[in-house]
# Entry
Amino acid sequence: MNIKKIVSEHRDFLGATPDAYFSPGRVNLIGEHIDYLGGRVLPTAIDLGTYAFVTKRDDRQIRLLSHNYQQDGTIMASLDDLTYNPDRGWANYATGMLQALIKRGMVATHGLNILIYGTLPNGAGLSSSASLEVLIGHLVCEQYHYAVDTIELSRIAQQVENQYIGVNCGIMDQFAVAMGKRNHAIYLDTESLDFEWVPLELKEHTIVIANTNKKRALADSKYNERRSECDVGLAQVQAINPSIENLCDISYGQYVKLADQIAPEVIRRRVKHAVTETDRTKQAVVALRANDLEKFGNLMDMSHESLKNDFEVSCFELDQMVDSFQKHGALGARMTGAGFGGCVVAILPDGQLDIILEKVRQEYNRITDYEAEFYRCQTSDGTHTITKEEWR
Ligand code: GLA
# Structure
């Protein structure tokens, strides 16, 4: 969809020529469900994301309209009352960011009209919420001339998600969205927030994101449940060895020695995933730098096995899709994001790309009854302002 056309459709809502902003989504290549355990992750920002078009108001109203949810109409909030309100639905991401930044010292001098247009499939595990949070954070800082370091902005967005929205997520999504860099993945240590951009130039291969179109059922409650299970696991290993600070610090050798003492068995498997996924992510970065995509693909396959069996965050549709990719010639495939539905990420050889996608599409549909959707992953820079020349 042409963004110029969208803006002109909402001319009355905006009232003047708007400022424009874009925030990417993200896909995680490997390092899943360990960003809240002090582990290392390897996401990349993608060119599907969220746009915002913004004009000033003379009053203290924030008026929000989503092109994608026009049935919700215009949602209003006063700058003087930004408390969470379930009736505001998706707009709570915006009020949450505004409230957090105002508490931090930003002076919001006037109201805004904010038109949102998203190109990410919702609930597909590609971080539409982090994309929106960081987008609002970035645009209000620009509108109110308030300076915040980009990494700090991603932390604020994570806090909003944790405390205001009530999802206990880690830092990966907000960080990837804010700090994305075209043609690069982000190798992030979620404990220290040290990171490196790793070039993502896959010769003769393409990263494909495949949407199962199975909505992520129960993802939030199961997500919080996994976090609590990991807390139990950590308390048990710390009772044995108090120098262990987080689960991802444990080497595989150490884990083997500790395993017998971690109980019940389900907690042991959660700890095992944290330990093995950390190892796989480290190895995957070495493989990527050496352009050893076979190895990278194997590590993705193993990551999926671990998420399915040890961490238990996959589902029938994700497993089926991964299985089809592996069978029909992908170098590697795995679920990506929180799981329980959503997307798979796979690496495919360019020469067979179309054939593989067609085979996977047919097989997946025959077995699950869902229609798969595929996106060739294009990387993106992090959340940014779009110049007038770029969109008008
Ligand atoms: C969600 C969370 C992230 C991360 C992933 C799983 O996307 O928001 O913080 O935990 O799940 O890796």
Notes: The first helix runs from residue 3 to 9. The chain is about 40% helix and 20% strand. The CA atoms of residues 49 and 356 lie 26 Å apart.
